[in-house]
Amino acid sequence: MLKLQKNIKTIIVSLLAVLVISMASTTLGSTPQATILNSGVVTYPQYMHVTVYPTSIAGANKLSLGFQLSFGSLGVFETNSQLRTLAQQANFGIVRFFDGLTSPYIPSMMPCTYFDEANLTGTYNWTLVDIVVGEIFAMGAQPLITLGIFPTGGGAPVVPLGMSINSTTNLPNPESYAAYASEWVRHFSAKGWPVKYYEILNEPETYFGYTPNVTKLRYYMQLFAACAQEMRSANSQISISFDYIYDKPVLDYWLANNGPDVDSIDFHKYDTSSLPATQTEPQLMADAENLQNYYSVLQAQQIWYQARGVLLPLICSESNMNGASPTTDPRLQQISGAVWLSLVLRTEILDGVSYHVYFELGSSYYSGSYGFGMINCNGLKPWYPYYAQEMIGQNLGLGDSIFNATTDSTDLRVLAWMHKGTTNILIINKSTNNETVSLQGINGQLSFSKIDSTIAWTTPAIQTGHIDATEPITLSGYTVLLLQLSA
């Protein structure tokens, strides 16, 4: 009898083992994989809960996505319709470019071929500028034009041929640069093109210092004031700012010394600028949700409002996970880069940011790296950050209602909203841990789109399908998942 009982117990454990082996493994909507312990007991993964409250409105979306045209994209964007089609498919709303890039590999966007310093006039050729700006408008986006860029390694900013650099300030004379900057505004006004957004000098903190040299900050403020006055005289509807106004010592000095008005709080978002990265990957994912530099962008917005009575829009005018150059971080094109980006976009949506500019649209393999692009210009194939933005950008509009949504997992982030009658639920797994999710508050059949590391980053793809809201969802490490429920 004892022998029979042992045989029955052996058969039961064997059947349980066969059952576990036959179960579907970590795929969206499958039964979560069971595990047999040494004792023969079957255990299942712990469910993490994502709860959506579709009748509880948290706010309205203000964010539009965008990209930079610079080292990897100029020369391709304006000549290749396939690259422009990819950009249009993701519903990008803003495109930023510099006037003064100098490189043998890209065309210059500098329209002033010669500037007469004595008469404050210039000779201009707007052909390439008009082609690029025309294509930006054709895809339904707005240009953001940054006038002036400092060369790598420091020095005076790039200015038109013939324009003097003041030996005291190491900047162009304010009246000269204001004459040049206002010519851009007059040109587009004459064409009837509603070009609105401008920045004066890219990353001026490289000039006056991350901890500002007060004298240099004053020189920059004088230059900005002259440009703003002349540009607004040409068109009062434009928006002018610079990307370091939210820095605490800069903003404090600007307001304390009657600095000129800016029309938006602009900022750049990089969470490391070195290779190897100084932050660990978990730190980068945590930093993705932090928009601050002494002041957070929301604090800067409130401080400006208290001082000047105007609640300024927030614009992230340049961003990527790692700003290291010339050899870039290989993770920029991988699933970890897409997860970092998705966390940033979610944070910006919740914080009411108006624009996010990804640096940059496309790049090609060179010098041991793939540059900063989200699209491989060798064959025009997107990488994972493009797919993350396409999934969000195609399904997000201005004014969309944001629903309250929660999760009990520290590894997950969730965002839910309504777009054109469809409920969208974005779930981000920001760790390499597998997670099994139980969805609460939503019923019915859902369609899904997701990206994760189960498909190699060199041949990335969006995985799609359908799932019932009652089914468990298994996420395999880093994942960006969009669930959709049509009304």
Task: Let me know the number of strands.
Answer: 26
What is the averaged pLDDT score?
91
Oligomer: single chain
Overall geometric form: globular
Tell me the Rg in angstroms.
Answer: 26 Å
How much helix, percentage-wise, in residues? 25-40%
Q: Let me know the largest β-sheet.
A: 9 strands, mixed
Notes on the protein architecture:
The chain is an alpha/beta fold and 487 residues long. The protein has a domain of 338 residues: Alpha-Beta Barrel (TIM Barrel). Helices cover 29% and strands 28% of the residues. A nine-stranded mixed beta sheet has the order 24-23-26-21-20-19-3-22-25, with helices on one face. β19 and β20 form a beta hairpin. α4 runs parallel beside α6. The radius of gyration is 26 Å and the shape is globular. The protein starts with a helix and ends with a strand. The N terminus is likely disordered.
